[in-house]
Amino acid sequence: MSDPVIITEDHGRVRVITINRPQALNSMNNAVFAGIRDALAAAETDNEVAVAVITGEGRAFSAGQDLQEMQDGLSGEGGGDHQFPAMLKQLTEFKKPLVAAVNGLGVGIGMTFLAHCDLVLMSTAARLRTPFPQLGLAPEAGSSYTFATRMGWQNAAYVLMSGRWFSAEECLDMGLVWKVCDPENLMPDAISVATELAANPIPSLVATKELLMGAGRPDEAWAAHKREISAYATLLGAPANTEAVAAFVEKRDPDFSSIPGI
Q: Is 15 a member of any domain?
């Protein structure tokens, strides 16, 4: 029997959700998307849980969407019932405080996920990037909206258009990250701050988060996701994206030279 892709553990009124796919750098396939959705839904309805913490097992937070699964989808070998939208819907509407403990690299959804979290702690050993331009794609997970509201327009534009790596200190300076920690202190610090929040009544925490978000934020994030899906539909499977994904799977540099207009 294979190991579960999501592990949950309670620390008093704090539930730690761990993405447990270290052999694939916690890249998110359908099983992981479904697992995160279910774990968040369970934490939201459990009256013994006040705060959730999400982290990754091993040396990555998440290396992003599973590109082998993406390639299977392009070739017709993958299933059509993708779990990403349901996970994102649960994430954008999660009512309780959500703390992220970024233990290692985060790529794509491994970075865009963080803008939906209330507090983000990041290890000095971690780094983040959104390589959508290099993959011939557009932003996802509502990041065209959430990054601008969290980090400001220019920071969001640079992060999403450059696709380069960002250190923990850079992410702190931009406002994506709340606290930078030494690797050995990351989880203790994350659980400590989550426990501090969890000492308060759940209805107060839920009401405060709702007020901070404003009535329209989940709807705005979801609307941004729908616009991004439209852009994805145009770009996914186009020559640049097909070449980029194939190059990644084959562990070579992409060659866009023969593609018109690139």
A: yes
Range of the domain at 55: 6-185+201-209
Number of domains in the chain: 1
* DSSP labels, 213-244: H-TTHHHHHHHHHHHHHHHHHHHTTSHHHHHH
Q: Tens digits of per-residue pLDDT, 177-223?
A: 999 999 999 999 999 999 999 999 999 999 999 999 886 788 899 99
**Could you give the maximum distance between any two Cα atoms of the chain, in Å?**
60
Instruction: Kindly state whether residue 219 falls inside one of the protein's structural domains.
Output: no
Amino acid (one-letter) located at 64: G
Strands (DSSP E) found in 108-257: 119-123, 127-129, 166-167, 179-181
How far apart are the C-alpha atoms of 24 and 20, rounded to whole Å? 9
In a domain, 191, yes or no: no
Task: Specify the DSSP class assigned to residue 176.
Answer: S
Q: Which helix H or strand E contains 60, and what residues bound it?
A: strand 60-62
